[in-house]
Specification:
20 helices, 5 strands, three-stranded antiparallel β-sheet, 2 domains, two-stranded parallel ribbon, single chain, mainly alpha, 531 residues
């Protein structure tokens, strides 16, 4: 229903109380005397609302696409849904529900952000929830630890704002999938506010899909699979290395859990978790059996590297959320520093005792494709279980990891730079992960985060630490720089693959684009361009 300037009536916004001439004067000064054209020219939403469109209505396109379109559009240009008579409520009832709607929005946004979702996706979900409950003039704001939302009906009405602090972060992708389903139902306007609260309470009470003892064994399996991925051989010695990495990873996991129950920060947990694998590698280097202690240490690193936080940091930076991106990147730096300190303490002791640590024994390239492909798939499967991924999604995650590692192996064997090969492989993982997520109507994180596990730069980090421990500072800097370049290529590739997938997705309105869009074209976000 297009907006008709002739229907503009400022009477509902007049101030009724006029006891004295002075009060009448102040009230008259506060009245809304602007025309709709003045409101638009000033960049604000007119008091009578903005034109309502059927395009982008519930069910027209997936909610992430619809909400990203609105999120990247200035508020005074955002089209609202055309409300049906059953959805229209008296103003007093609607105003009473505003605080509850904002609280529900913040609670769902908190769960998404704590699960590792990118800041733009969290804001899109929050905007979609508010939009579905008829709060069309909302502005969500997400930072690393604080999320907020502001609702302002018009310039003559008082705004309502609410904030929520994110203090705990979880790695439960089963819960994330349930939250995504709840957001999809809310944005389709199929769930009332009360029902949404009930479903959210059920989601919070849900138990993890895997028991603690199984997760501990899975940690060992991940480290053990990484030894085959790095070593590339199957023989008696390889199985002994696997067993050492398996036991060391489980011991590190239990020690980290023990100090976590004591309330120590996550940094110290990573320091302690990295020590058993490094100690096991040092012990193997003393034994004259030809066992590769460096492979054990490298395998232990794969179980600790924060791939989820790294990908989210780069994605936030690429989409313009620089504060959140910087905070996530700082978190990654601290966690990696904890791993480095834990391993370096053991390495310095081992080098002091002249242990036989050979850097070349920790990296063989892609020389044994069948063995390394199976190892990569097992590693991704174990990683997905550690992230509490739903059982029904494990097969797709494993398949996506096979696609990524196979493409990486083909490119490396074709003499392509490992950094370029990592970026291309990560792009394919991001592309297929986004397509799998669209097929399952879920978040792309479960299909991407675990699948990039085999591509993590564990070997480069270990080589850098060993070089520093042996006194070769130049070689250590080269290895650490290479690890940083691999990590950046990995994160950018995943993000680019997801953006490419969205190019083929249905956009709000489809071919039936309304007339309002040519009149109010979508504007790009402001960026500094060299000045």
């Amino acid at each position: 229903m297009p907006y008709d300037p002739a229907s503009y009536d400022p009477a509902p916004y007049d101030t009724p109380a006029r006891d004295t001439p002075a009060r009448e004067s102040r009230a008259t000064g506060a009245e809304d005397t602007l025309t709709p054209e003045d409101w638009r020219a000033a960049g604000y939403t007119p008091p009578t609302g903005i034109p309502m469109l059927n395009a982008g209505a519930p069910g027209a396109a997936p909610w992430p696409d619809r909400m990203r379109t609105l999120l990247r559009t200035p508020m005074h240009e955002r089209p609202g849904y055309e409300r049906t008579p059953t959805q229209e409520r008296p103003p007093e009832v609607h105003a009473k529900n505003v605080p509850r709607i904002l609280d529900l929005t913040l609670r769902i946004g908190e769960l998404l952000l704590a699960s590792g979702e990118a800041a733009e996706d969290v804001e899109a979900a929050m905007l979609g929830i508010a939009h579905a409950y008829a709060l069309d003039r909302c502005e969500p704001q997400v930072t690393f630890t604080l999320i907020g939302i502001s609702y302002q009906p018009s310039l003559v009405d008082a705004p309502v704002t609410a904030d929520r602090v994110v203090r705990r972060r979880t790695s439960d992708y089963t819960r994330l999938a349930a939250v995504y389903k709840l957001v999809a139902d809310i944005t389709a306007e199929e769930v009332t506010v009360n029902d949404a609260y009930r479903r959210l309470a059920v989601i919070r009470r849900n138990r993890h899909p895997y028991p603690v003892w199984l997760l501990s064994l899975t940690t060992g399996l991940l480290a053990g699979a990484a030894t085959f991925l790095v070593g590339g051989r199957i023989d008696g010695k390889a199985w002994l290395v696997f067993a050492n990495a398996f036991v060391a990873a489980i011991l590190g996991d239990r020690l980290a859990s023990l100090i976590a129950r004591r309330g120590l920060p996550e940094f110290y947990q990573f320091v302690v978790a990295a020590m058993p694998a490094a100690l096991s590698g040092i012990i193997l280097s003393f034994i004259d059996l030809g066992l590769r202690g460096s492979v054990v240490i490298t395998g232990g690193l794969f179980a600790l590297l924060p791939g989820r936080a790294m990908v989210a940091a780069v994605q936030d930076g690429l989409t313009g959320f620089y504060i959140t991106a910087a905070a996530r990147l700082l978190e990654v730096i601290y966690l990696v520093a904890g791993i480095v300190i834990g391993v370096m303490l053991i390495l310095y002791a081992g080098v002091g005792f002249i242990s036989n640590l050979n850097p070349d024994a920790s990296l063989v390239g892609v020389d044994y494709p069948p063995v390394q492909l199976v190892a990569a798939m097992v590693l991704a499967l174990a990683f997905a279980m550690l992230l509490q991924t739903d059982r029904r999604s494990l097969a797709l995650v494993t398949l996506n990891s096979a696609i990524g590692w196979s493409s990486y192996g083909v490119l490396v064997n074709a003499d392509v730079s490992p950094i370029v090969a990592t970026g291309v492989a990560a792009g394919l993982v991001g592309l297929f992960g986004q397509l799998m997520a669209r097929y399952r109507y879920a978040s792309a994180l479960p299909y991407v985060t675990a699948a990039i596990g085999p591509l993590m730069p564990g070997s480069a980090i270990y080589l850098g630490m060993l070089s520093f421990a042996q006194g070769h500072s130049s070689a250590g800097l080269v290895s650490i720089s290479r690890a940083a370049a691999l990590a950046m290529a990995l994160a950018i590739g995943v993000n680019l693959g997801g953006e490419v997938a969205r190019l083929f997705m249905k956009i709000p309105g489809g071919a039936e684009r309304p007339e309002l869009y040519p009149a109010l074209p979508r504007r790009a976000a402001k960026r500094t361009r060299g000045f």
